[in-house]
Amino acid sequence: MLNYKQLHHFWNVARAGGIVRASERTGLAPQTLSGQIAALESTLGITLFRRQGRRLALTETGQMVLGYAEEIFRLGSELEEALSNRSTGRAIPFRVGIADVVPKAIAYLLLAPSMALTDPLRIVCREGKLDGLLGELAIHKLDVVLADSPMPANTDVRGYSHRLGESSISFFASPALAATLDGSFPACLDGAPMLLPGMEAAVRGPLMRWMETQRVRPRIAGEFDDSALMLAFGEAGVGLFPTASLLAEQICSKHGLQRIGDAEDVTESYYAISVERRLRHPAVVAIGTATPKLEGNPPSGEQQHRTNKRSAG
User: What region holds the HTH lysR-type domain (predicted)?
Assistant: First the structure.
């Protein structure tokens, strides 16, 4: 069985870069540290260090063991901090990974229930590609990952997907661009400049199939992995763009954009991915059990883009 005291001595020596320095930092005799590491190597049946001149260097196996040791003692430190926080009333850390294809406003709506907890919370948000975030989730650097799709079947990470809600999809454009569109929706999309989510976005495929069934072929003016960047380009009038219908009021009022129409039968779902089948972190439980109002329904007919009112001349 792994001796964690010996592992801790190895961790200290590896971080210090040698036994003498580790001895100075820990106050333990060099002979004690050497003996503990030798005992650990004997138990595991491996070599952790090799001589490199006057210094010790980690073997390839030693590098791997150090990675695990770093995570083990980081988690131990977090456990102590969490217990201390509960006893002193300090904020509980809540580390969230947000896939870059998830709109920021949607992420806030999904996380909002955790902000209502009685215990004080300190939220730490990290944005990135889903596969990278899942890697951090696997080694417990994150408590949960928010994504637009469930856990990929081909990933090596063991995790569980908890569906949080969904929204229909609408198209938006700057007023200047909207004024150039001819005909009713969705025919007005044909030949129009279009900004699309990147290939990794779960909604990309359904959107392309919907446009095929509507027999419209917009001119693809840009593709974006980051939803916020796509919104910025759309606000500048570079092209129309699709996003969650439930954000329509915010997009139109805050960014001065117009809602052109809705992609029928195209929805975007949102998931919380965790390493636990049964959620335990209080903030993850809060967002996993809440029922956020993610209902982006199409507007009434007069809100849709119907015809271009420009004069012929």
Answer: 2-59
